[in-house]
């Protein structure tokens, strides 16, 4: 059967990639909105199990985003000037903008507490910009991946090298830690760590894997490819759900080890979800709504913790509705800011 290419490059942004960016932004808001009830509800209750099912899916947000970033960044050779100015510069501008907002919030809090001197307020601003918030690790990691993109490009341009790199990454990031977590193999895990294969471990695996998955073609139909990806997703998702539910019920507290980003089942859930998007959604040029919402993803990610108190007003399983509300509020704010900034730059 003739090869069915699942991705035909369009002149602009690719539709399915923009859709998954939008979905990732939504998932990360849901994750942080649900985490409060996920950790406090008794694991044996039906409410916790429903929340756990949603929380499991939300854990896909960061891995699939890093995979999408790898697709775009590693597709072609990029100059150092382009990476620093266009990619890192853009991320840093967005980061500094929103950390200034957090600085304003912290400054107001200091004033209300009666300790808002000029010095303490300045320190609050500097602290937010230099050290960020609990969720801004993502931005630092993304910048780190951008910094090593020129080296990674030299790897991915060769078929043999990219497969070798991914084999090492999966071995040292997923397989060996999983073996080391088995009772009785702790010393073996310590021995693995002494090899110190940092260059092939962690998020760089997803960054390179995303590019590799975007290049795969099959000798069978799109329908069959979708069925395979769907089966892998369903089985890995269901297995992760039941294992995490059983372990959590046994320990009396919420445990997500079974579907962590670097757990074997987590890897299967994340990659199969990405492939489902790629197979089932058109690979043509992105529609305007997807581009607009996708461009708001960074802002939504950086600002949504400011709105999480809204979600905390909802209890139990209704917290999911609070998460949707937080996402819509963050999206609306980003759209308004984007419209105002475009109007200002257009008039200059």
What does this entry show, briefly?
The protein has 348 residues and is mainly α. It has 16 helices and no strands. It has helices at residues 15-40, 46-58, 61-73, 80-113, 118-131, 137-147, 149-156, 159-180, 186-193, 203-215, 222-251, 264-280, 288-295, 297-303, 308-311, 319-347.
Question: What would you say this structure looks like, in words?
Answer:
The longest helix has 34 residues, at 80-113. This protein has one domain. Mean pLDDT is 89; it is low at 1-11. The protein has 348 residues and is an all-alpha fold. It has helices at 15-40, 46-58, 61-73, 80-113, 118-131, 137-147, 149-156, 159-180, 186-193, 203-215, 222-251, 264-280, 288-295, 297-303, 308-311, 319-347. Helix 8 (159-180) packs antiparallel against helix 9 and helix 14 (297-303) crosses helix 16. The protein has 16 helices and no strands.
Structural class: mainly alpha
Topology, number of strands: 0
What number of domains?
1
Number of helices: 16
Q: What percent of residues adopt helix (DSSP H or I)? A: over 70%
What series of H and E elements makes up the topology? HHHHHHHHHHHHHHHH
Could you list some keywords that capture this structure?
single chain; 348 residues; mainly alpha; disordered N terminus
Topology of helices and strands:
Layout (H helix, E strand, L loop, with lengths): L14 H26 L5 H13 L2 H13 L6 H34 L4 H14 L5 H11 L1 H8 L2 H22 L5 H8 L9 H13 L6 H30 L12 H17 L7 H8 L1 H7 L4 H4 L7 H29 L1
């Amino acid at each position: 059967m003739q090869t069915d290419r699942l991705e035909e490059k369009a002149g602009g942004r690719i539709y399915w990639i923009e859709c998954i960016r939008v979905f990732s932004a939504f998932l990360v808001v849901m994750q942080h909105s649900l985490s409060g009830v996920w950790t406090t509800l008794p694991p044996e209750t039906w409410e916790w199990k429903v929340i756990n099912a949603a929380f499991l899916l939300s854990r896909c947000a960061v891995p699939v985003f890093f995979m999408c970033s790898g697709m775009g960044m590693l597709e072609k050779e990029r100059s150092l000037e382009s990476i620093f100015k266009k990619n890192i510069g853009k991320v840093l501008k967005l980061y500094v903008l929103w950390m200034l907002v957090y600085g304003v919030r912290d400054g107001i809090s200091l004033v209300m507490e009666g300790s808002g001197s000029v010095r303490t307020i300045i320190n609050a601003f500097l602290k937010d910009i230099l050290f960020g918030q609990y969720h801004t690790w993502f931005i630092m990691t993304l910048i780190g991946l951008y910094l090593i993109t020129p080296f990674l490009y030299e790897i991915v341009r060769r078929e043999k090298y990219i497969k070798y790199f991914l084999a090492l990454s999966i071995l040292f990031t997923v397989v060996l830690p999983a073996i080391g977590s088995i009772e009785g193999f702790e010393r073996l895990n310590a021995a693995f760590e002494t090899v110190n294969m940092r260059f092939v471990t962690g998020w760089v695996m997803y960054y390179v894997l995303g590019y590799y998955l975007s290049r795969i073609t099959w000798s069978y139909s799109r329908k069959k490819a979708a069925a395979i990806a769907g089966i892998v997703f369903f089985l890995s998702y269901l297995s992760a759900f039941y294992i995490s539910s059983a372990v959590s019920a046994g320990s009396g507290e919420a445990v997500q080890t079974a579907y962590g980003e670097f757990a074997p089942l987590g890897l299967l859930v994340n990659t199969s979800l990405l492939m489902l998007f790629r197979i089932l959604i058109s690979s043509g040029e992105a529609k305007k709504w997807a581009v607009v919402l996708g461009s708001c993803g960074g802002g939504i990610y950086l600002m949504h913790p400011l709105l999480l108190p809204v979600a905390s007003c909802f209890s139990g399983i209704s917290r999911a509705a609070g998460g949707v509300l937080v996402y819509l509020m963050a999206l609306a704010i980003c759209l308004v800011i984007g419209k105002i900034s475009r109007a200002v730059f257009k008039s200059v």
